[in-house]
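Homework help board

Subject: predicted structure for assignment chain

Our instructor gave us this sequence and asked us to write out the predicted structure in token form, then describe one feature. I got the tokens but I'm not sure how to describe them. Can anyone check?
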Amino acid sequence: MHDEESAVERTMSLDSQPAVDEGTVHRLSPHDQAAVDALGEDDALLIVHYGPNQGARFLLDVDVTTAGRSVSGDIFLDDVTVSREHVQFIRDGRDFYVRDAGSLNGTYVNRVLTTEALLHDGDEVQIGKYRMTFYPGRTS
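My token output:
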């Protein structure tokens, strides 16, 4: 065999993560773009682009928005991969943070596991099987 590799190299290649395309852009429909354009400057919008309820929009317009599998939460995400109280979206002035609430499967921002992160325009937030994009309101 002229193309031999050691067991260590094979194991390392199995463990390595695929490269993440940080430049993934999700094209908005005209209706979604209009919703983003209509946001107040202190508000934000999450749009589900992959997983259950693809296309769903969630408005972040209060200081703390809870999301999870609990029907008493602000954002109901009905899937077994989502904890009952999975995350909080926290508004601090014009900034928004996502904070994991001790979920079983974790919360990811741009495919990186996080306990808390400041969100930026176009960031992808993954909660269980739901992958959604964050859009903040624009300043006038």
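Reply (TA_rk): Your tokens look well-formed. For the description, you could write something like this. The chain has one domain: 27-136. That's the kind of observation they're looking for.
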